[in-house]
Specification:
globular; 56% helix
């Protein structure tokens, strides 16, 4: 039986941001371990043959409204990003590149920059300024995310997620059971606590 919850996420996913904020609240009050599993959502969609909601004018309008409703209900600061969607490849490689002691701050900073502060994370200058606040060397970061080992690691984590039948973000896995969507986080917690 699992003693943790695997959390598959991508910074480009508004619902992953909401889930991350909910996880932070859960961890303040419970001794529950979450394993953060970064994936490249665009690559995962390609593997699964899925067209992302971002490219459907009906779905994206509903998605924006839904994110705003859910965020308000959960007291999460949220702003729909005017540059959605962007390619998250470098951001997700960045999460894998930064040292373990920086990962949480990196994720908080970039999630909030995109989904709270409405920054354009396709702009290298914006990324550079955020890295500076995290005391991460911009030049080393930009070189690091181009290293083959980092490229391969993100590809491997995405392929591994697909093999486990993960098809979107956020997804939670507990005891080999899949819970898809930020609104299924509570179910994943119940599964963990039940066993």
């Amino acid at each position: 039986m699992s003693n943790h919850i695997d959390f598959y996420f991508d910074i480009i996913s508004a619902y992953s941001y909401i889930a991350h904020k909910k996880i932070q609240k859960i961890q303040k009050n419970n001794n529950i371990k979450f394993n953060y599993k970064p994936i490249f959502l665009g690559g995962l969609h390609n593997l699964a043959g899925i067209s992302a909601p971002a490219f459907n004018k009906y779905k994206i309008k509903n998605m924006q409204n839904d994110c705003e409703l859910v965020s308000k209900k959960n007291d999460i600061s949220f702003t729909w990003n005017y540059k959605f969607p962007i390619n998250s490849l470098y951001l997700m490689r960045g999460y894998l590149y930064v040292s373990d002691n920086k990962k949480n701050d990196y994720l908080n900073t970039f999630f909030e920059a995109y989904w709270k502060d409405n920054l354009d994370l396709s702009n290298e200058l914006e990324i550079s300024q955020l890295l500076k606040t995290l005391d991460i060397d911009n030049k080393k970061f930009l070189n690091g995310i181009k290293e083959q080992s980092i490229k391969d690691l993100l590809k491997d984590t995405t392929n591994d997620a697909f093999k486990k039948e993960v098809f979107g973000a956020p997804t939670f896995i507990v005891n080999n059971k899949i819970f898809w969507g930020q609104d299924r986080l509570e179910y994943a917690v119940e599964e963990l606590n039940f066993n």
